[in-house]
């Protein structure tokens, strides 16, 4: 998972459970709670949560950060749908490196594990 | 559409603004398999899916395939198209190969299927960005005239998923840029390549929303106001919320 790779590159350790469970202040990710709330608000189509998180990100990191965060979340409204609607499998070269993480987060149990 | 994001309360990076301005009118143009009017009807149905009672019931069910009934739809598209659009919009993480096969058995051409989901996903993506930055959803443009050629893309072959795709080593000029810098190694880039325009239109926007080549380390050469770790957290968390393994 690229979040873990990014952490290895910068020397930071992130709590990967935060990806499945939602970030908390202890996940190691700066503004993790705000990022999580923004992702949940947009993906779950919850305008109240989205608006609160948007304001929090603007107040904390600035408007450009909010736009960049919204852009990433929007992109990942597309990739999962494109993958799951076409049955796209994970690449062979990713299987071994992600085995431990998939087990740790029980990802192999997802219905979309084609 | 240009006005919707140009007058947004937040400033949008110029390349992203251009990508949004390019993508929205494409939804109204004739595609490879669908007319402009059909494509806009798909967009409208994708938006409408969130208020469908059947989809809400399925979403909360242990298995969506145990819940039967009729979709609340706008009445402009065949029933089997509506099921594809609604499920992709509201519960994509639990789609199955059987569901896909049933859609084809019901009369949807494989190529049509790819264009239908491509249009729906493109519209959902633009709407998600609008929701995020606090802009009202754009009104649909007028459909553009023209007849889709409806010709099978002969470079496509079965796999790697349920739907036929075009392998990077068989791309041809239409998909040469799509597979630039070796990114064809990622199966997701192949997902919609049975209909090349569906793939290139969607990924032209995704390249600006996320990044063209996720293989790069950190943010080398990319100008963003959040860290790479925050980007990848948002990516992974959003995928998780949709129940996406990939």
Summarize the helices and strands and which ones pair or pack.
The complex is a heterodimer of chains A (114) and B (246).
Chain A: H1 2-10, H2 17-21, H3 32-43, H4 47-61, H5 63-75, H6 79-86, H7 92-95, H8 99-104
Chain B: H1 2-6, H2 14-26, H3 36-48, H4 53-60, H5 79-90, H6 97-105, H7 110-133, E1 157-160, E2 164-165, H8 187-190, H9 196-209, H10 228-241
Antiparallel strand pairs in B: 1-2
Structural class of chain A: mainly alpha
Radius of gyration of chain A: 15 Å
Summing up helix and strand content along with how strands pair, one would put the structural category of chain B as mainly alpha
Integer-rounded radius of gyration of chain B: 18 Å
The major beta sheet of chain A can be summarized as: none
Q: Give the count of helical stretches of chain B.
A: 10
Number of strands of chain B: 2
How would you explain this protein's 3D organization?
The complex is a heterodimer of chains A (114) and B (246). Chain A has 8 helices and no strands. In chain A, 44% of the residues are buried. Chain A is mainly alpha-helical. Chain B is mainly α and 246 residues long. Chain B is 47% helix and 2% strand. In chain B, strand 1 and strand 2 (164-165) form a beta hairpin. In chain B, helix 3 packs across helix 7 (110-133). The two termini of chain B are 32 Å apart. The mean pLDDT of chain B is 94. Chains A and B meet through helix 1, helix 2, helix 3, helix 4 and helix 5 of A and helix 5, helix 7, helix 8, helix 9 and helix 10 of B.
Give short descriptive properties of this protein:
heterodimer; A: 114 residues; mainly alpha; globular; B: mainly alpha; 2 strands; 47% helix
Compact description:
The complex is a heterodimer of chains A (114) and B (246). Chain A is mostly helical. Chain A has helices at 2-10, 17-21, 32-43, 47-61, 63-75, 79-86, 92-95, 99-104.
């Amino acid at each position: 998972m690229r979040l873990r790779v990014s952490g290895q590159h910068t020397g930071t350790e992130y709590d990967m459970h935060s990806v499945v469970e939602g970030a908390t202040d202890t996940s190691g990710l700066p503004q993790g709670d705000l990022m999580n709330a923004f992702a949940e608000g947009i993906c779950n189509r919850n305008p109240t949560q989205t608006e609160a998180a948007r304001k929090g990100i603007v107040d904390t990191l600035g408007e450009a950060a909010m736009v960049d965060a919204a852009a990433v979340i929007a992109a990942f409204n597309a990739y999962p749908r494109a993958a799951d609607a076409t049955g796209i499998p994970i690449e062979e070269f990713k299987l071994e490196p992600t085995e431990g993480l998939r087990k740790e987060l029980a990802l192999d149990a997802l219905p979309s594990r084609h | 559409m240009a006005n919707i994001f140009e007058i947004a309360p937040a400033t949008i990076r110029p390349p992203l603004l251009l990508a949004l301005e390019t993508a929205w009118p494409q939804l109204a143009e004739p595609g490879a398999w669908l007319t402009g009017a059909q494509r806009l009807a798909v967009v409208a149905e994708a938006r409408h899916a969130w208020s469908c009672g059947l989809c809400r019931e399925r979403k909360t069910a242990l298995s969506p395939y145990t819940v039967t009934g009729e979709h609340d739809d706008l009445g402009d598209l065949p029933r089997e198209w509506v099921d594809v659009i609604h499920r992709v919009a509201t519960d994509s993480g639990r789609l199955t190969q059987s569901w896909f096969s049933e859609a084809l058995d019901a009369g949807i051409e494989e190529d049509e299927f790819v264009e239908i989901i491509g249009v729906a996903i493109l519209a959902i993506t633009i709407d998600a960005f609008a929701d995020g930055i606090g802009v009202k959803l754009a009104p649909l443009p007028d459909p553009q005239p023209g007849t889709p050629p409806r010709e099978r893309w002969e470079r496509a072959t079965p796999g790697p998923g349920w739907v036929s795709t075009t392998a990077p080593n068989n791309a041809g000029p239409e998909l040469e840029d799509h597979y630039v810098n070796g990114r064809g190694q990622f199966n997701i880039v192949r997902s919609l390549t049975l209909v090349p325009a569906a793939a290139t239109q969607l990924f032209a926007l995704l390249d600006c929303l996320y990044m063209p080549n996720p293989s790069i380390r950190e943010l080398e050469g990319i100008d963003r106001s959040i860290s790479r770790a925050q980007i990848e957290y948002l990516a992974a968390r959003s995928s998780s919320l949709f129940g996406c393994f990939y």
